[in-house]
Amino acid sequence: MKRFVLRLLLFCLLPLPLLYAFSYIVDMGLRRSNSYYYSEWNDIFHGAVNADLVITGSSRAYVHVSPKILDSALGLNTYNLGMNGTKFLMQYDRFKIYLQHNKKPRYVVQTLDFSMLAENYELYAYQQFLPYLSDPDIRQMTEKYKGKFGFGEYYFPMFKYNNQNALVVEGLKSFLGHSATGPKYKGYEGQLKPWDAAFAAANSNGPGMSPYDQVIDSQSLTKFNEFLALCSRENIKVILVFPPIYSEFIPVFRNRQAILSLFESAAAKYNFPFLNFLDDELCADKHMFYNSQHLNKTGAEIFSRKLAAKLSGIVTK
């Protein structure tokens, strides 16, 4: 019996060094990858950004603001740190990690939306964090969400890549110097998408979706003010920017004026500019959007040029 148990233990334990080595190779490969999930994180952790101006926010940052257009118009090195599917808490955590590995920017363009200060319960696109689970800041950043990583993901080799065959393949290829070409340019990805009919369907039986009051999460509001105070202390100028929303969708947010007033007051408190594009002509043109809150590539690049024109009176080379 003892011999059987010993053989069983050896059978189970002998593959572990190989699995740890394999996991290390995949991690290191993804940390070099230019693919969708990892290009921005890798630039951040490698200290490869060091931008004069960074754009922060949700998908309304990463699909709306083109660094190529801003670079050309402003004569500055700009980079888009927008995170798809996030609210402010995760955006702020990413910005703090950015500051640890890169020189502080002179300017931050923080994009806004009506729901950015709401609670966000789910860990969205968890795959983006997998190669960096050994980093204490990533662990702290992710542990407050549903779907957070557990013991297995942290300590069992390759467990975190279960059912992630495409990521494993990309990690191996990238480790060998053959990374995929990512779709983004300095964090920006213009969207070549048609108008999403879901919004039209929701409005087919009346003038619009049922209006509601967007609840503000107290912790998110506290952290938002902490972010502005941090930037003020560090002599980083924040420009609060509310990008266009399709005009028919704006009335859905019943307490929108209160939220806008909150942003205006925060900007005034720290003497930061607030640029509101909700009255811009883009908002009325459905052909510039692919859904109610996101501009398509054509609209985003028109908006980026308009934003650059506004920023030209605020920033200096």
Average residue pLDDT:
91
How far apart are the termini? 76 Å
CATH architecture: 3-Layer(aba) Sandwich
Structural class: alpha/beta
Biggest sheet architecture: 5 strands, parallel
CATH class: Alpha Beta
- Strand residue percentage: 5-15%
> pLDDT below 50 for ≥5 consecutive residues: which ranges?
4-14
Radius of gyration over all CA atoms, rounded = 22 Å
CATH level-3 fold name: Rossmann fold
**Share in helix:** 40-55%
Q: What is the name of the CATH superfamily?
A: SGNH hydrolase
SS summary, helix count: 13
Total DSSP E strands: 7
Q: Identify the strand order in the major beta sheet.
A: 2-1-3-4-5
Domain count = 1
General shape: globular
What is the H/E order?
HHHEHHEHEHHHHHEHEEEH
Characteristics:
317 residues, alpha/beta, Rossmann fold, 43% helix, globular
Description of the molecule:
With 317 residues, the protein is of the alpha/beta class. It has one domain (16-311): Rossmann fold (3-Layer(aba) Sandwich). Helices cover 43% and strands 8% of the residues. The protein is built from 13 helices and seven strands. The protein has helices at residues 2-13, 15-30, 39-45, 59-62, 67-74, 88-101, 136-142, 151-155, 165-175, 197-202, 218-233, 256-269, 297-311, and strands at 53-56, 78-80, 107-111, 237-242, 274-276, 289-291, 294-295. The strands form two sheets. A five-stranded parallel beta sheet has the order 2-1-3-4-5, sandwiched between helices. Strands 6-7 form a two-stranded antiparallel sheet. Helix 12 (256-269) links the parallel strand 4 (237-242) and strand 5 (274-276). Helix 2 crosses helix 9 (165-175) and helix 5 (67-74) runs parallel beside helix 13. The model is unreliable at 4-14 (pLDDT under 50).
